[in-house]
Design brief:
The protein has ten helices and nine strands. It has about 260 residues and is of the alpha/beta class. It binds zinc ion.
Length: about 260
């Protein structure tokens, strides 16, 4: 199976600038990410292994897996890990029309309520990127009606906002809802970050020996690297070998583990 462990500079330049491939090279921080869970056995093992090293990570979850294993999803959140959206059915962007892709993203978004998205396989069309950046949150429940002007008693959207305000960056507008001028919905710009990676462990490749997978990850990871692993059955043979070892090496080298 062919894949690039390290994302080349030119490939990053090819994509729109909104995509994030790595974080600051100035900080000694590594960003571990796990795609395709949550599932039994593998995800709980990852949670336990991370806990042994007091490490936090970002989990890009498949919506369908969240509905099948809600208790594991809750455990991820309870342990302080960050959740990302990975579509509901792990769709391939290049082979999916934009409407279907966006709907699948939003279906997963109802469960994940996150500002992070990673396209499955890293394959996404520019038109889909645009749609996701513009529709990251379902804001339909927030309506600014003309009859709200100055009438405190008729403001009915407070409850909705309380749930969402921590994750949507339009706080300034909300500070004084009673003097809020009605605005069209398009003025709300939900903030979604599309997270790619700069180190692909290749743990999903059954032909890759665990030792080689380990060497790849150690060789290519540096300050600010976003590293991809998979909490999936396909990756299990390599993940089980590699994860505790990289955590130990990086901890001993003085790296911290950040969440996105
Ligand atoms: Zn995936």
């Amino acid at each position: 199976m062919f894949f690039l462990t390290k994302t080349p500079y030119l490939l990053k330049k090819f994509y729109p600038k909104q995509l994030i491939w790595n974080k600051s090279r100035a900080e000694k921080v590594i960003y571990l990410t796990f795609d395709d869970g949550p599932i039994p056995i593998v995800t709980p093992w990852v949670i336990k292994t991370l806990k042994n090293f007091n490490a936090k990570a970002t989990f890009f979850c498949i919506g369908d897996n969240i509905t099948k294993h809600p208790e594991i999803f809750e455990q991820l959140k309870a342990d302080g890990h960050t959740i990302g959206n990975h579509t509901f059915n792990h769709l391939k962007g290049w082979k999916t029309d934009d409407e279907t892709y966006l709907a699948n993203f939003l279906k997963c978004q109802e469960l994940t309520q996150t500002n992070l998205f990673r396209p499955p396989y890293g394959r996404i069309k520019k038109s889909q990127i645009e749609k996701i950046l513009n529709n990251g949150y379902q804001v339909a429940s927030i309506e600014y009606q003309d009859d709200l002007k100055g009438q405190e008693s008729s403001i009915k959207y407070q409850d909705d906002l309380q749930i969402q305000e921590s994750s949507i960056k339009y706080q300034d507008d909300l500070q004084s809802p009673y003097t809020l001028n009605p605005k069209p919905q398009t003025s709300i710009k939900p903030h979604i970050s599309i997270i790619m990676w700069d180190v692909l462990s290749g743990d999903f490749d059954p032909s890759l020996k665990p030792e080689k997978c380990l060497r790849n990850v150690l060789n290519y990871t540096e300050n600010g690297s976003v590293v991809v692993f998979h909490d999936s059955l396909k990756a299990w043979d390599r993940l089980e070998f590699v994860l505790p070892k990289v955590l130990e090496v990086w901890r001993d080298e003085g790296f911290e583990f950040g969440v996105l």
